[in-house]
Amino acid sequence: MAYLKLNTRALKHNFLFLDELFKSHGKDWGVVTKVLCGSKLFLEQVIKLHPDCIFDSRLSNLEMVKKINPKIKTGYIKPPPQRHVEKLIKVADISFNTQFETIEMINRYAQKAGKVHQIVIMIEMGDLREGVMREDFVDFYARVFDLEAVEVMGIGANLNCLNGIMPSHDKLIQLSLYEQLVEAKFNKKIPWVSLGTSVTLPLLLKNLVPEGVNHFRIGESLFFGNNLFDDSSMEGMKQDVFMLYAEVLEVMEKPINPTGYVGSNVAGETPVFEIEDYSETSVRVLVDIGILDIEIDNIRPLYEEYHLEGGSSDMIVLDVGTNKHNIKAGDMVPFHINYMGALRLLNSKYIEKRLD
């Protein structure tokens, strides 16, 4: 059976690296755990690191966090669904909001529960996903400040999530100016200016994040140690927090070229082959994971000489050349995975989850 392994030492290394980085720049931060898909086994490892706050986009995942440690601060990082506001109040201490009618509901349910719920109000900064339009922002705040059981914790924005609009020094400055405008107009202190996601980390490393932007929400860079600006590895961070292992089902020398009439495969694709010498062969390996579990573009064999030939619903085929590693049936083949690959694997009931 294929399994996904979390390297706890690499995770701790990346967490401490980021914690020191943010402290040295005077920034607050929290861990985004949505890639873990509510896995109790993996969430426990994150909670052991004592993050200031855990953010997620699924209420069921935050519910699991609270079951593991009821005292840890939690945040819901997308506009809350109105049908689940009552549950939101139970499992999230903070929520990120854009709809005033929803905030009114939060206020009512928070009053009923005897709580004060903290909110971050998201502003539209160009990526056209969630966010209050900038021309409506001041009036929006004026209405929210009248609510008794809601505390404005911050102003926030998202970039690079839908249309690929990248953060820049200018956009960060704009967001911090909006925070200053609201504080001056309403004489209210807003603790967080939150535009810091993993894609903003390279700007911080270059000292291009203004002092006013003081809060980061980090998921992908923590778990993958990558620079989202250019998809490179982040110097000083580990890239092997997650590894996928798939069991070898078949090892056999076969022709390089298929033979017969070419139609559409199980994925609806019509493969195109280079016409080569039909006498050429290589060793091909079948492993027990398929496109039901992961897109082939989201995994990469640990051994660079291995080539991913393709996959069906439950199996992937590797060309291992001359099989210099002497792979045999029953062996486990390791793969690197990217963020989207991990997201799919963690959401699959067919993939075992393990710790290292």
TrEMBL record:
Listed transmembrane segments: none
Keywords: Isomerase, Pyridoxal phosphate
Listed cofactors: pyridoxal 5'-phosphate
A GO CC term assigned to this protein in UniProt: cytosol
A UniProt-annotated Pfam family: Ala_racemase_N
A molecular function GO annotation: pyridoxal phosphate binding
SUPFAM superfamilies referenced in this protein's UniProt entry, alphabetically: PLP-binding barrel (SSF51419)
Residue span(s) of domain Alanine racemase N-terminal: 7-225
Cross-referenced InterPro entries: Ala_racemase (IPR000821), Ala_racemase_N (IPR001608), PLP-binding_barrel (IPR029066)
PANTHER family, per database record: ALANINE RACEMASE, LYSINE RACEMASE
Protein name: Alanine racemase
Source organism of this protein record: Sinomicrobium weinanense
Lineage: Bacteria, Pseudomonadati, Bacteroidota, Flavobacteriia, Flavobacteriales
